[in-house]
Design goal:
The structure is a single chain. The protein folds into three domains: 136 residues, Methane Monooxygenase Hydroxylase, Chain G, domain 1; 77 residues, no CATH class; 50 residues, no CATH class. 61% of the residues lie in helices and 3% in strands. The chain has twelve helices and three strands; from the N terminus they run ααβααββαααααααα. The chain has a three-stranded antiparallel sheet, with no helix packed on it. The longest helix has 37 residues. The radius of gyration is 62 Å and the shape is rod-shaped.
Length: 313
């Protein structure tokens, strides 16, 4: 009984070793051999894990995956893998290989160990792959993050340099704009000598100094009015306003004097109206011939005129 079963297992193991040794010398890539042994290991483990399930005990030739990976399409390599299946205890029934329900599932465990050892020798152990892959994925981002960091530092340095240059240009333009406000800065233009243009200003300074020998009022700069122009405009406006105010006050005074003259009933007999201005020369002839209107105008405007002479009519 048990002795005969043990001898059959030993003979099966010995025959299996011969088959696997023959397969090892086939001119096939190790990856192809590993896929074939991984498939055989999966089929046997299904039976060991589910000994009472009949569906796991049947291997179909017509299955596309089994047919391709075990070369069951008539290729010479397929004959060797068919012998491997038979030596595991499967019976060939038509287009299938069947592991009998009467056979113990535990009898397949030694073959599982053999296939696992072959996969380890072919470096096709799934657990080893799962351990090696995370190491590559962890190291890769460390190298990729170096380049963006360098680019960021370089961009910050360039931005800082650009800002410093722009600040220097603004300061030079501000000096150029505020320069004409002082008398000393206006002397080159007034004397007809052009000052050298400042750096990094562009064509603006050239256009503003294109006409020599003229003051700022006759040749204003293209960039805008200077402080001197604004001051000159303010002085002119104040002078005009002052003149208008004086003229308005004089007119108001004249209107007041005329109104007082019209409202005075004794305007013709009042001493201040009868007294001739000091600037009127003595009249010849009839002094009383001057009309009241002539006296009024003489008194109103404070001086004599050619029309205030005697004989007014």
């Amino acid at each position: 009984g048990k002795g005969s079963e043990g001898r059959r297992e030993c003979r099966g193991q010995s025959a299996m070793e011969e088959l696997t040794e023959t397969i090892a010398h086939l001119e096939l890539p190790d990856a192809v051999k590993a896929e074939a042994y991984a498939l055989l290991l999966k089929l046997l483990r299904n039976i060991v894990s589910n000994p009472s399930e009949a569906k796991y005990r049947t291997i179909k030739r017509t299955n596309a995956t089994i047919k391709a990976k075990l070369f069951l399409d008539g290729a010479p390599e397929g004959i060797l893998f068919e012998d491997v299946i038979r030596h595991c205890g499967f019976n060939e029934v038509g287009e299938t290989f069947v592991y009998p329900m009467s056979a113990a599932a535990s009898a397949l465990e030694p073959f599982c160990d053999t296939f696992e050892g072959i996969l380890v020798s072919l470096n096709h152990e799934p657990q080893q792959q799962s351990q090696q892959q995370p190491q590559v994925s962890v190291e890769r981002p460390k190298f990729q993050n170096i380049v963006p960091a360098q680019k960021t530092l370089r961009a910050q340095a360039e931005l800082k340099s650009h800002n410093e240059q722009m600040a220097q240009i603004r300061a030079e333009k501000r000096k150029q704009f505020e320069g004409p406000a002082s008398p000393g800065s206006m002397s080159p233009k007034a004397s007809g000598t052009l000052a050298p243009p400042p750096d990094n200003v562009g064509p603006r300074s050239e256009s503003s100094n294109s006409i020599s020998g003229k003051s700022d009022s006759s040749a204003p700069s293209k960039g805008g009015k200077t402080a001197f122009d604004f001051k000159k405009r303010i002085d002119t406006a104040e002078a005009i306003k002052k003149s208008n105010d004086e003229l308005s006050a004089l007119r108001a005074q004249q209107r007041a004097r005329f109104s007082n003259f019209q409202n005075d009933p004794n305007r013709y007999d009042a001493p201040q109206y009868q007294q001739p201005p000091s600037s009127i020369p003595p009249q010849s002839g009839n002094a009383s011939g001057s009309s009241g209107i002539s006296k009024f105008f003489n008194t109103l405007f404070g001086g004599g005129s050619s029309s205030s002479g005697g004989g007014g009519g």
